[in-house]
Design brief:
The protein is α/β, with parallel strands linked by helices. The protein is built from eleven helices and five strands. 40% of the residues are buried. Bound molecules: zinc ion.
Length: 250
């Protein structure tokens, strides 16, 4: 059952454990109507042992683990993942150690790039790796319900979505279909870097990551609160297409 279905059921059934959830995310604001009882099978919070105990780590350790995985991927020494055993262990829930906001580009593949198995990464993907209501809500779920200690916004070199935005703004043209939605979300980074020296595309890709890290850090009440309590770290990175190396940026 997907997140949306569970949430709908929760609203229908009523939020019986809401007080505990609000305490867990450190907010007492009215109007936050997620119902943790409906997510019990996802969270494992009521069980003693999460499906992946090795994922229950603090933010800095999660970042070190992520980057170690990237080193293995770059060096071509990725581990063999036991999908069969992991499948069985994850039937009853999940406790990923990082959330990733990545571009949809087929060359990126966060699970490969960080040499991670199933149940390790909570990945949201959209062309241009920007935070909108849907991706923020998904990452709020990852933080408040699954307790992920780390979120990485992952841009990449030669991003087609950013490149198309640069061209659309430069030529003052409107792209077909729903593509203008991408343009409007990526335009701030393109405009902010328009007069910078160097490669306009690389500059805009970097700025877009920086902007969306800032957006997630200021997302109230859930992500901002988790950060302030030291439960969550949010960072940005750029994936280099030529060798797969992820460079962390501010
Ligand atoms: Zn891209």
């Amino acid at each position: 059952m997907c997140l949306t279905c569970r949430a709908s059921e929760a609203f229908a059934a009523g939020a019986t454990s809401r007080r505990n959830f609000l305490r867990s995310v450190g907010v007492a604001a009215a109007g936050l109507a997620l119902a943790p009882s409906a997510f019990a099978k996802d969270t494992n919070k009521d069980t003693k042992t999460p499906p992946k105990p090795q994922n229950d780590i603090p933010p800095d350790e999660a970042l070190r683990r992520l980057m170690k995985g990237n080193e293995r991927y770059v060096e071509g020494v990725s581990r063999r993942h036991d999908f069969k055993t992991e499948r069985e262990a994850l039937v009853g829930g999940q406790n990923p150690y990082a959330g990733i906001l990545s571009c949809a580009d087929s060359r990126i593949a966060p699970e490969y790039a960080f040499d991670s198995g199933r149940g390790d990464l909570f990945v949201c993907r959209v062309a241009g790796n920007f935070a909108n209501d849907d991706t923020i809500a998904s990452l709020e779920y990852a933080s408040a319900i699954l307790s992920v200690p780390l979120i990485l916004v992952l841009g990449h070199g030669a991003c087609g979505a950013v490149s198309a935005t640069i061209k659309s703004l430069k030529d003052n043209t409107t792209l077909p279909g729903h593509l203008p939605s991408l343009v409007s979300n990526l335009a701030p980074a393109v405009k902010a870097t328009r007069d910078q020296p160097g490669d306009p595309l690389a500059n805009a890709i970097r700025q877009n990551v920086i902007d969306n890290v800032a957006k997630l850090k200021s997302a109230t009440p859930i992500l901002k609160s988790a950060m302030e309590q030291g439960k969550l770290k949010i960072v940005g990175g750029i994936y280099r297409l030529v060798d797969g190396k992820v460079e962390l940026i501010g």
